[in-house]
Specification:
homodimer; alpha/beta; Rossmann fold; seven-stranded parallel sheet; five-stranded parallel sheet; 16 strands; elongated; alkaline phosphatase activity (chains A, B); phosphoglycolate phosphatase activity (chains A, B); magnesium (chains A, B)
Chain lengths: 314, 314
């Protein structure tokens, strides 16, 4: 694990109700990266003032980016989700782990000409984003992979039968897949053993739903990690591969960017390890005031709630 | 990891061709526990002399036990497999991880009256062995669990709907399941979160087939281990829970028992950590002479091949 960022031992500044402090803080940044659940909304409930706060930032020329580890949705799907919560946004403002993965494959990995295909464990969000970057792929939601393993599959896989193991596959990308099965895991394992790069959209072990937890994208990678004795490169928060992908797209000055989040250990760490100019904690999610003020990973500043930013202009 | 057994730093005795040494060795033991693949056979090929060696042991009044981590087969299935390889055996001589798990649940765990059901991830071998010990179970090969997760499942699981989450389940038992899916993992997670004991038939990450490797029973547990942050009690080699179960059944004197295997790190370790009177390595499988003679885990004695034991009576 990386060492805590030096800044993390500072005492964070409490900005709620501090108009001058808020103005000064906003003036320092051109770009605001937002964690979503716990910051802008909770579950299906948009926090009061979220829409107005985002408007204030945009009106002042700030770039707003919504950063999500949700790999099952494409950016277009996610924009619809924001719209459903009453939050206006554009696809260009959204950065999901499926998009991050696609950018990483298409713009950062230098794959040989004959190894450009991606074998996908995951849902349609990943497929849509791979298509948007013109990355060829197999697997994913293809019904041909949603079947039981058959006795002859073992022999075909062992023999390297090219109708089951495509020789052009150079990357295995594992995201959340509600149709995970034995065959998909066996194929992913053999692709990596044959030299494919092992990527994961994100490695969150759980996925919140209906007020409790369900298997997350990391749970899809877990069997492969155990079999291979190898971790994937993860493209979601807090992996810096995601920060690199965001920077690759928006070309911003990191010293003029601020990460906003409710979780010290993931969101704030993500901003600190990315050497962003600032990190802003909010108390409407997982981390407490004590976590931010005296925990091992501390933001530059914190607020009771995101909409406290509105006081900067009152 | 357990400390190496003190005996493991001894120099193992090489017994091939040493008739007096072989006789002396055989006289020390009443019970021989056998790892199978790599000792008695390899893949589908029975080693020459295996049948005769087992006959020699039985003729001299030795108890023979076949110990296997294969959880998909019942003892009856496994006896058929031995028969197919030309090796006579009785069901009573076979000890599989599915049987070990059933014994552990029925005879060692003290489950409350209203928490006696087992939720199974696995195939019919586990079900047959649970039935043989009169342990009630759900899941397993029941087609009702071989389906995609549905949107309403999240709400039903979150609400503790007793038609999906049986309140009498007190144990989750995870073995190799060729029909693993998202719903099965979600249910297993929620049972353990609600207090069920987390068991695994075995935690081998891979399963050999057709000369290569496929996902093993450990790969079924891996997502749950990641989600729960908790390891299961494993009932296969080299877990001592399996040794306890074997002893519980055969009631033998450990000082008069010998474990025979081809792998220092699992088979020989299993015997050493179980404080058996002896361990015997054979060079027809994974470990080399160097592993046995100078590795960190060393048997009491070793042979080129199991059938070298026949020289004791020539």
């Amino acid at each position: 694990m990386a060492q805590p960022h030096p800044a993390s031992t500072n005492t964070p500044r409490y900005l709620t109700g501090d108009q001058a402090g808020l103005r000064e803080f906003l003036d320092k940044f051109d770009v605001f990266l937002f964690d979503c659940d716990g910051v802008l909304w909770s579950g299906d409930h948009c926090f009061p003032g979220t829409v107005e706060t985002l408007e204030l930032l945009r009106k002042n020329g700030k770039q707003v980016v919504f950063v999500t580890n949700n790999s099952t949705k494409s950016r277009a799907d996610y924009r619809k989700k924001l719209e459903g919560l009453g939050i206006p946004s554009s696809v260009e403002e959204i950065f999901s782990s499926s998009y991050s993965s696609s950018i990483y494959i298409s713009r950062i990995l230098q794959l040989p000409e004959n190894k450009r295909k991606v074998y996908v464990i995951g849902e349609s969000g990943i497929e849509q984003e791979l298509r948007s970057e013109n990355v060829p792929f197999i697997g994913g939601t293809d019904p041909a992979y949603r079947r039981d393993v058959q006795p002859e599959d073992y022999k075909r896989i062992a023999a390297g039968d090219t109708s089951l193991l495509d020789p052009e596959v150079g990357v295995v990308l594992v995201g959340l897949d509600f149709h995970l099965n034995y065959l998909k895991l066996a194929l992913a394992y053999h692709y990596v053993k044959r030299g494919a790069i092992f990527l994961a959209t994100n490695i969150d072990s759980t996925l919140p739903n209906s007020g409790t937890l369900f298997p997350g994208a990391g749970s899809m990678s877990a069997p492969l990690i155990m079999m291979l004795g190898q971790d994937p490169v993860a493209l979601g928060k807090p992996s810096q591969a995601m920060m690199d992908a965001i920077e690759g797209k928006f070309k911003f000055d990191r010293s003029r960017a601020c990460m906003v989040g409710d979780r010290a250990n993931t969101d704030i760490r993500f901003g600190l390890e990315g050497n962003l100019g600032g990190t802003l904690g909010v108390l409407t999610g997982v981390s407490s005031k004590e976590d931010f003020v005296s925990g091992p990973v501390r933001p530059l500043a914190y607020l009771d709630k995101l909409s406290d930013l509105l006081a900067a202009e009152q």
